[in-house]
Amino acid sequence: MHHELSLITTVAVALGLALVLGFVAARLQLPALVGYLAAGILIGPGTPGFVADLDIASQLAEIGVMLLMFGVGLHFSLDDLMAVKRIAVPGAVVQMAVATGLGAALAGWWGWSLGAALVFGLALSVASTVVLLKALESRGVLDSQNGRIAVGWLVVEDLAMVLVLVLLPALAPMMGGSAGDAPPAGSLWLALGRTLLEVALFVALMLVVGRRLFPWLLWQVTKTGSRELFTLCVVAAAVTIAFGSAELFGVSFALGAFFAGMVLRESEFSHRAAEESLPLRDAFAVLFFVSVGMLFDPRVLLEQPLQVLAVVAIVIVGKSLAAFGLVLLFRYPLNTALTVSASLAQIGEFSFILAALGLSLKLLPPDGQSLIVAGALCSIALNPLVFSLVEPGARWMRQRSALARRLDERDDPLAELPVHTEAKYLARQVVLVGYGRVGRQLAQALQAQGVPVVVAERNRERVEELRAQGFPAVLGDACEPAVLIQAHIAHAAVLAIAVPDTLGARRMVDTARQLNPAVQVIVRAANDEEAGLLKSAGAAHAPVAERELAQAMLGLALRAARPDPTV
What we know:
Elements: H1 6-27, H2 32-42, H3 54-75, H4 78-83, H5 85-109, H6 114-125, H7 129-138, H8 145-171, H9 188-222, H10 227-249, H11 253-264, H12 270-295, H13 299-303, H14 305-329, H15 334-343, H16 349-360, H17 366-388, H18 390-400, H19 402-409, E1 430-433, H20 437-448, E2 453-457, H21 460-468, E3 473-475, H22 481-486, E4 494-497, H23 502-515, E5 520-523, H24 528-536, H25 545-561
Parallel strand pairs: 1-2, 1-4, 2-3, 4-5
Helix pairs in contact: 1-2, 1-12, 2-12, 3-10, 3-11, 3-12, 5-6, 5-8, 5-14, 6-16, 6-17, 7-8, 8-9, 8-15, 8-16, 9-10, 9-11, 10-11, 14-15, 14-17, 15-18, 16-17, 18-19
């Protein structure tokens, strides 16, 4: 009977113990995920007592990865992905190369073979998607520019790891391992070309066919009026597309689910889909952390403490410093560099997959897998602490380091308006903060009415695009007074803040009021509470999306019900 109920037993014990230990961790002012990891350790094979079914827990965790990435895709458009490609692609590739080199050098110092060192280094180079998303969501920055860069960076890492997993069996014999299911030596380039073609075909199929088919399917289900069918359609789409993409095109479950969310985003029901899948995403995400804890053998901390410390240092310090330098090299703000660095200061699911493959190919010694799992557990547990140091760290660096202040104030041609900017953009203009979906529509409407607009935007690619179109734009975070000064806020008629950042918006309003007490401030608000806070900070108007939509619908309804204007 116990064997027949292993699924129920695993789920019941895992969720129940995770709830108890997560609650204890929260009461101790620790992140709840520390409790989830501890629950996994207690029911794993490394500790005495009850041992849950690790295979079942791992498969349930994969469903959590699918649902999480599906949710991200629902909020992440193709435009968002393309907007960060210039930093995400080279940044991810170079950061992975640096981390792989550090891990391989450490393994070589321990006397491991070349193949073992390479697999070990690659396993330390790729961050966990689940940990990143939970960290960004908990801080409300998933939809911010920093969040988009971090997610785009992870998408590139996932694509790179797909190629690694395909090529490693073919390269294993040359590095002292077994061939496994590798293709003949002469077909290595053929295997690489086939993999690239399959990935390209999958992306094209999702973007061309999926963007039309899946929103239509969701609409057909919605017309039945059944909430259960709608939820089932959302979950089925996430899981089946992820599984199908992995089976047919060789991409990861996470990547397949991400693109499934992106194509369903084209439907007007995307927000409802995100809300319906949220409880399942949270529950299965907990199972992911429990499954990570189950892989951990506490004895490695006693038997190899210095090796574990070295692995954690590479993951948290080495990778973070590499990412920090790369982001600054691309001339992004200090806060962006710190946020991306914190996002990548951990490892997870792909590291486990790569370690298991390395063991099966006789490349990685058993100690290697233990150290990778130990590094993952420690880095995941410490990641919330690393994230909490981002803002204090940025302030500390600015206060005590002249270099940090110069990095924020460096001479960037995009950080100020061109010298040939027309006079109409320097006085009585609208200063628009943010050129996302809302900001873009507002700017185009104002421009069509002949109203001069100056855009302040943190995304370098968008600023370059606006400049190429002859549109005046300033690069930088409008929370910094220098950015609003460069946009000539002192002589502006209106400051329109179109970014979903309440805390940042309040700082922008304060700065604008100090530089121009007469400026009219319009701020985007998510709800009535935010609107009240922003108005108390000095905003003249804080429109709420739901209320404005209701007012627009009311106007349309009244005009339809009273067609005679004299009534």
